[in-house]
């Protein structure tokens, strides 16, 4: 069963029963945690091909909302559990995805604890540009706003705007409307490597 969601429409709510898994068919989603004081923290983004949540669970551990228009294939949790029990391939795919999530979280902890604002943004752009796991570079999803990037990276929107302008002047990226295209991934990687 496929469903569509409009901009900022929440389709997965933290701490509610995980009755459904969502395979992203098109568009993108923001993943976030709610804080006790009512604020929220963006913890990631989902794009075409991603499955939310990426692992079997009884309750959702984070919330998700559409960025612009989102289409997902809805997979009932019992069906996914059945696949894991009967198909070694499906179970292995979930384990790979979970491993990638853990590596991503480790990298994010390093980024927040040790990298400068410039290094954080360079790492984010490389991560988004290579998210499909192939050799070619993809533009950063135009649904991800500067405020989203700032929230995810633990920076201010003004800092992200200033750094994007600097990267544009340095011909590391180009910007068309809201899309960010990576022009020089090697130099961006060199910025990130400088922090290690």
Q: Can you walk me through this structure?
A:
There is one protein chain. The protein is of the alpha+beta class. It is 41% helix and 27% strand. The protein has helices at 77-86, 88-114, 117-129, 146-153, 157-169, 185-193, and strands at residues 2-5, 10-12, 20-34, 40-46, 51-52, 63-76, 173-176, 179-182. The strands form two sheets. Strands 1, 2, 3, 4, 5 and 6 form a six-stranded antiparallel sheet that branches. Strands 7-8 form a two-stranded antiparallel sheet. 24% of the residues are buried. The model has no long low-confidence stretch (mean pLDDT 87).
Features:
alpha+beta, 196 residues, six-stranded antiparallel beta sheet, 27% strand
Average the pLDDT over all residues and give the rounded result. 87
State the helical fraction.
40-55%
Distance between the termini: 45 Å
Q: Report the sheet with the most strands, covering strand number, pairing sense and barrel closure.
A: 6 strands, antiparallel
Number of helices: 6
Which stretches of 5+ consecutive residues score pLDDT under 50?
none
SSE map:
Layout: E1 2-5, E2 10-12, E3 20-34, E4 40-46, E5 51-52, E6 63-76, H1 77-86, H2 88-114, H3 117-129, H4 146-153, H5 157-169, E7 173-176, E8 179-182, H6 185-193
Antiparallel strand pairs: 1-6, 2-6, 3-4, 3-5, 3-6, 7-8
Helix pairs in contact: 1-2, 3-6, 4-5
Offer a concise description of the structure.
The chain has 6 helices and 8 strands; from the N terminus they run ββββββαααααββα.
């Amino acid at each position: 069963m496929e469903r569509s969601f409009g901009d900022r429409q929440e389709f997965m709510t933290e701490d509610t029963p995980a009755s459904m898994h969502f395979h992203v068919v098109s568009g993108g989603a923001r993943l976030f945690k709610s804080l006790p004081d009512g604020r929220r923290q963006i913890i990631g983004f989902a794009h075409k091909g991603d499955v939310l949540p990426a692992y079997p669970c009884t309750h959702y551990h984070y919330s998700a909302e559409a960025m612009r228009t989102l289409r997902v294939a809805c997979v009932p949790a019992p069906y996914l559990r059945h696949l894991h029990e009967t198909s070694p391939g499906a179970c292995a795919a979930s384990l790979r995805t979970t491993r990638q999530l853990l590596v991503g979280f480790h990298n994010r902890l390093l980024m927040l604890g040790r990298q400068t604002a410039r290094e954080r943004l360079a790492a984010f752009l490389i991560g988004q540009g290579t998210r499909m796991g192939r050799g070619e570079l993809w533009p950063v999803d135009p649904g991800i706003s500067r405020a989203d990037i700032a929230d995810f990276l633990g920076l201010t929107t003004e800092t992200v705007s200033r750094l994007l302008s600097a990267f544009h002047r340095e011909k590391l990226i180009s910007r068309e409307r809201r899309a960010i295209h990576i022009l020089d991934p090697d130099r961006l990687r060199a910025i990130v490597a400088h922090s290690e």
